[in-house]
Amino acid sequence: MFNVATAKAVKQMFDFMEQIAPRFEAAGFGVEGVFHKRWADGDYGMYIKYRNEPVLYMGIWSELWRDRGFSLCIGVHRGRWSPQVVARFQRRFPDCEPYPPNDEHPFLVKGVDPVMLMGDAVTNVSRWLLQGYLVGVREQPRR
């Protein structure tokens, strides 16, 4: 997985993460970073929050990149986040999968289509998430 081309791809993904965060903030969501210096041993990403509660994780999971070929994934934390948030994610992305699969409280993850990362990835991904998924989060009644 890690070769000369990897360094350029990783740099592009780091830049992407920095550039997309303000799009979510401008739409009224909070963003909390989860950035590890040794990202290859884990993840590098952000929690997107609404009303101070996590509603989506987006980032680079090195294991999923290596094992499934997805450089960018989204997910929710089953068993740790609001059941309504988890159920909504499962309805919107029925092909999501538990990761790590044997964890007691895994994330449910979905790989982002690599085609969306071509061209203007920040606009493509932020529009896909804001208009196709996160807009519904804001429309749900407060519990």
Q: Given the C-alpha coordinates, what overall shape results?
A: globular
**What's the average pLDDT?**
83
Give start-end ranges of low-pLDDT stretches.
none
**Helix count?**
4
Strand content: 25-35%
What would your notes on this structure say?
It is built from 4 helices and 6 strands. With 143 residues, it is an alpha+beta fold. A 6-stranded antiparallel beta sheet has the order 1-2-3-4-6-5. Strand 2 and strand 3 form a beta hairpin. Helix 1 (4-26) packs across helix 4. The mean pLDDT is 83.
Keywords summarizing the entry:
143 residues; alpha+beta; six-stranded antiparallel β-sheet; 4 helices; 6 strands; 41% helix
In short:
With 143 residues, the chain is an alpha+beta fold.
What topology does this entry show?
Blueprint: H1 4-26, E1 30-35, E2 43-50, E3 53-61, H2 62-68, E4 73-77, H3 83-92, E5 97-99, E6 107-111, H4 121-139
Antiparallel strand pairs: 1-2, 2-3, 3-4, 4-6, 5-6
Helix pairs in contact: 1-4
